[in-house]
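Pilot study result, target chain (443 residues):
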Amino acid sequence: MWKSYSVVLVVVVAVEYCCALYSKTSDVVELTAANFQDKVVNSDEPWLVEFYAPWCGHCKSLVPEWNKAATALKGIVNVGAVDMTAHQAVGQPYNVRGFPTIKVFGANKKKPTDYQAARTADAITAEALKAATQIVQERLGGKKSGGGGSKSSGGSGGGGQKKGSGKDVVELTDANFDELVLGSEDHWLVEFFAPWCGHCKNLAPEWESAATELKGKVKLGALDSTVHTIVAGKYGIRGYPTIKYFAHGKKNGEAEDFTGGRTSGDIVNWAMDKFAETMPPPELLEITSQEVMDKATANPLCVISVLPDILDTGAAGRNKYLDILKDVADQYKKKGWGWVWTSPGQQTALEDSLGMGGFGYPALAIVNVRKQKFSIFKGSFDRDGIYDFLRSISMGRGSTDSLRKLADIKTREPWDGKDGELPEEEDIDLSDFDMDDEGKDEL
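Predicted structure:
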């Protein structure tokens, strides 16, 4: 019985040892549920905290860089680590979902910021020193740091303003700029700012709002030019704020000056114009299934066309109409609308629900399924006519009708791209006709 118990003890110790990523001699502080509040949240010192899982490959790869940064920052900024498999409660208030997650606990310990720079010792130390610098600046200004501070550390964009909704603004540094901006396939608008600049502070909420609205299309970043002088010098930054546009794939560092206004709407419109230049035209889909229709109507607006029967126009005539629609769709591609078409008799219920069935082809309607509104185009079916109609609708000037329900779609075979064929006429046998009464002309 005693031997069995001894074996169990040895196994437990071995498991605990193998799960530890940081040794007792490391300068990385082991943080737990028992000491986190006192060491981090209630302290006046800045902290960089890694939330990790021992089994995580990325966490294991980070260990040497995290150790190196902890040693370099010793006595300046504290570097800690939390094993989330043992102390899950520590990470819960900070919405830790993946590993490793790194948080910067700066001037306002109650609102740590996400670390978004590269996972190298150089980048980590640069971010830590920035957090420390902000605390010093706030103390010089008479503001108390620690748990009750008024600002979160590492604020992105707009001269170090509180992040708030600015979580979508990416904080850029000398260490991560090339990797995140120049090395990515994303489009970027980058603000070069100075923390003391009044215009930068005024821009902050507009920049943050635009970053959220442009998410998934154009990334917005901010670089403190007073700290990260290498990148600022490379682009000849002389005044603040200076905004540069980096199109996707510009690995050579080529940038374009931002020439738009300073409101959120101005920034979004300018960015979307640039984004649209590189976008492929939207796909014009034939309505062959409910799935196609659902995909198209999931967009803010959906343009639905009913083209003439193939027997009336032939393949050449139909392709002419399709080319018109594709051309207009390309002009409106930054709107993110859906574009679909069908031919008479293929989706009669859909035509009826939009009040354009039975005659007058080609026909076109624009639909907002979410608001249950639609509008019928009544002009000449050409590029200019359709463009002007859609422009009026998008600006809220056109008249609309209420849509009770968009009809269900029948599954159809797609058009094969060929001319239509008339049905074969049946041969009529005339042998049964009585030809004797040739003199009579009545029925």
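One observation from the pilot: The mean pLDDT is 84. A full batch analysis is planned for the follow-on phase.
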